[in-house]
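Same chain as my last thread, 268 residues:
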Amino acid sequence: MKKLSSLTILLSILIAISSTTLFSQQINVGFQDSIESKVLNETRNIKIKLPNDYDNTDKSYPVLYRLDGSLDIFIETVGVINRLAYADELMPEMIVVMIENTNRTRDMMPTNTSFFQSEPGAENFKSFFESELIPHINESYRTTNEKLLCGQSLSAVFTLYYFLTSPHTFDSFIACSGGFPDCEEYFSTLTKEFLKAKQNNTKNIFITYGIRDFLDPNGVMKKQLINFTQLVESKENINYKLKIYEDEGHVPYQSLYHGLRFIYASEK
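reply #2:
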């Protein structure tokens, strides 16, 4: 019994030591910030990742704004940026800004649908970007004029809405599993108005779709995106691509990676 007891004690000590060592190590991905929004009448939390050498240089950087700012998407986004900027050297270093959700459906939807009957909040959310969030980032950090917006699923609906109504705000748009769920007619009207307007500066837009998307069993959104592609890709100063993944489902994991590669390969 004494031997067993001693072994148990030894194992307990080893576990405690290893646990202490593990939990004392800090892995810094980024940091938290917040904005007291008068437009939205609420506090909005954001996560920020600065380039590796930000504190050692006086350089200014482009900014990627990504919606649905959960921790796992934040880590995924930073990993993609680090791979393309540092390992592959295919794009510039950039600041990452992730916007956490409060009332996601309200903020992302520009119109009513069968699954959303409340007051649409997309226009207010867009005003938050333009009058509060982007000025806050520009004032707080060294930024260039280049800005990118990335959304996925429902926030891809918002990304497409932003592209069609205020394309001047961002240089590039990435819509992961974009579509027009139960609001195709509304977006059709927006698209017609967009096509009439003159676009002086080149804008990049990259949209993804997975054939195995469980939210689109009948391929309705796929048809929507193909029709949308035929209209938009011919417009002057629009650099457009729809990427369809044969073996992927909703929000293909590679969407941001391929989107950034498309944007920066096009600029060379």
